[in-house]
Amino acid sequence: MSDQTGRNTHRPSIIPRSEHIVSRANISNNAIKVLHRLHKGGFQSFLVGGCVRDLLLRHQPKDFDVATDASPEEVRKLFRNCRLIGRRFRLAHIHFGREIIEVATFRATHDELDDNDIRGLTDAGGRILRDNRYGKLEDDVWRRDFTANALYYTLDGYSIWDFVGGFEDVEQRVLRVIGDPETRYREDPVRMLRAVRFAAKLDFSIDDPSEAPLWELGHLLDDVPPARLFEEIIKMFLAGRAVESLRLLEHYRLLAHLFPALVSELGKDTDGQFRKLLLDGLATTDQRVREDKPVTTFFLFAVLLWAPIKKRFDRLHGGGMPPIPAMQQAVEEIVKAQQSQISVPRRTTIPMKEMLALQSRFNMRKGVRSLRFLHHPRFRAAYDFMLLRASSGDFDTQAAQWWTDIQLADEKSRREMAQVGRGAGSGKRKRRPRRRAARKRSAGQGGQE
Ligand code: ATP
Ligand code: MG
Fold first, then answer.
1. Which of 80, 142, 212, 241 is deepest in the core (most CB within 10 A)?
2. What is the pLDDT of residues 16-51, one digit of tens each?
3. What domain range includes position 405?
4. Active site residue 314
5. Does 298 fall in a domain?
6. CA 305, CA 328: separation in Å to the nearest integer?
7. pLDDT digit string, tens, across residues 137-171
8. Is the CB of 435 under 6 A from ligand 1?
């Protein structure tokens, strides 16, 4: 059997141990235990998906996923530390302390099931296929999104089974949709975001047929459940390649379907101030991920939504509302409008609103309140955000420096600084620099925890 791309659906090419670099030394011991136990139980078991791809790229995999012909119930019988999750597609999670090995039964989509499966007959091993959503290894391959994500590694000979040319694509660093790209994107539009995410994260190019529909199909994202988009956005922007991901989302005209208010403000951002804050903020986040420092969703969303929030704030504040309620209302309105695309949960919006409402306190340097502010639980995040504003020309750089200095000062000097209330060493009040005159300063580093 073969399809229009000429793929042979039933014969994998088997890459022997001598021809690939995947080594057991880089595989989690728990994953190896799971593979062994399934095998001993008489089942097929493979590592599959991102972990095989990452090992081939010499990256440390985030987690290890296993695919098997054992049903979830059969998996549970083999492992005491197993929990079944999911309703539509049941998956087995095997728990080893904090590590979870996810075990998925081979699955087929309906049009990939042959007649035997649909009639619920037995497979080669003689077992009844209780549920015809389950399939064989040969079926499981085709439901996967990209060839690079459809490689199967077995402990049996330590070889890699490749039905779709994924091995070569990983070597060439090409992202290629399995099957007809447009059809696969229509089946699940999140695959377009996955294409962007993997291209950015792995530094892969997207092959032409897989790339072409991206420019045209952004509107399909409008119908994806907003909660799923939140998860996907978090994965995309907190993987250490946020700047590149944003570039690709704009390039493929997908960004407007995710953050319409942001895109609209970027369109009017003639002096590039908002774009600068956005790119600096994402660069800081990328830097923190690379340094293994904690990153938060609320800081990320503050960066992503700052342009429309600030615009709204200026309106409200300009109309006479005091800064704190004006900022709170601006955040509320923009977040509410955003929810129809991406549902941002309260655990993100609440600290984000707090952090942004604190921005006006950076204007108040005189008096004990400024000293107290230093101990506010959100001070550090608010300070980092203020530095981003300062470096994009949205906050006085002298004042920003004062907040940097006061943190480094001892108690006595702090009190002295708070008495004067302006930048150390400056005898007279400096005029606010004009927007364009603001120069880049060291961007905020810490405080996203
Ligand atoms: P990551 O490094 O982000 O974990 P991953 O490739 O492992 O990357 P997962 O989201 O963990 O991605 O999914 C595991 C595997 O499941 C993928 O490699 C792919 O084979 C398959 N998969 C996941 N989501 C989809 C989807 N929307 N459509 C088709 N296949 C998918
Ligand atoms: Mg994964």
1. 241
2. 999 999 999 999 999 999 999 999 999 999 999 999
3. 363-437
4. no
5. no
6. 13
7. 999 999 999 999 999 999 999 999 999 999 999 99
8. no
